[in-house]
Amino acid sequence: MDAISFSGVTRTYGDVLAVDGLDLDIPAGRTVALLGPNGAGKSTTINMLLGLLRPTSGEIKVFGDTPSRAVARGRVGAMLQEGSLIPELTVAETVGFVRGLYPDPLPFDEILRMADLTDLAGRRADRLSGGQTQRVRFALAVAGAPRLLVLDEPTAAMDVESRRAFWDSMRTYAARGHTVLFATHYLEEADQNSDRVVVIARGRVVADGTAAEIKAGAGGQAVSFTLGAQPAAGLDALPGVVAVEIASGRAVLRTSDADATVDALYRKTTLDVHGLRIDGADLEDAFLALTQEP
Ligand SMILES: Nc1ncnc2c1ncn2[C@@H]1O[C@H](COP(=O)(O)OP(=O)(O)OP(=O)(O)O)[C@@H](O)[C@H]1O
């Protein structure tokens, strides 16, 4: 059974079409990144997945249940963009309280360990840094041992070191066979911490696969060479080429098939090609190509 299934899900806010006919199935046990620029529809998608917002049309299932039922049965843990802690409570009290709400929670010490909070157990919530607060929120999201963990831009307030520790914790949780869906607009985070990346833009899925597949599919490789004063005409018609840029006497061909492009460059053109370079796929280029306004 899929952990998550969206069929033809649309959500509007007045005139704004935030999610536009979303179809998405996520098998249990996967870690999936929902990657998209600001306003792409990530939070709306997540809020619908958690039963906090209703779709305007279409259907969402979470382990075969409606989102609200799945949440009520303790199957889903979430870390959203907002949500403050009770300032007077210590970390231990906060975790203990939330843990007590679930029928079959993780052991208390394990929650603290996983969120790297053992040393902060006695600290009041209002004396925590931004990154430490995020760690407590992560602890609360996993406290009930949910089968599905949903994280909406979880590292937004964190520095580099906290981010690394956070993703380690997330991977520890995912490695137990749990499903994780996280929203981000950080390409590197999507690339490094998921086994599937779903790119959304303007409320639609524009790419879906491993980071490597997305890079290849969006023409993320670049073949470049010294063009000098030679004419650039016809380069855009070479096999695989999706875009041509000329800068400082060098031609850069963005291509979905670097082998075919290079082969044709030598055999099918009369250009004097030297200084040839093939640069690895760059997810940033792929992401920009996929999400830019038409
Ligand atoms: N409550 C609301 N009322 C009206 N429009 C909204 C509301 N919430 C979101 N929107 C609009 O819906 C679209 C999708 O927003 P959403 O917050 O889902 O995107 P996002 O991908 O999460 O963006 P971000 O990365 O900035 O958090 C945007 O155009 C946004 O302006």
Automatic annotation (TrEMBL):
Name this protein carries in UniProt: ABC transporter ATP-binding protein
The keyword Hydrolase belongs to this UniProt entry's keyword annotation: no
GO molecular function: ATP binding
Cited InterPro entries: AAA+_ATPase (IPR003593), ABC_transporter-like_ATP-bd (IPR003439), ABC_transporter_ATP-binding (IPR050763), P-loop_NTPase (IPR027417)
PROSITE patterns, A to Z: ABC_TRANSPORTER_2
Primary location class: membrane
Record-linked CDD domains: ABC_DR_subfamily_A
The keyword Transport is annotated on this UniProt entry: yes
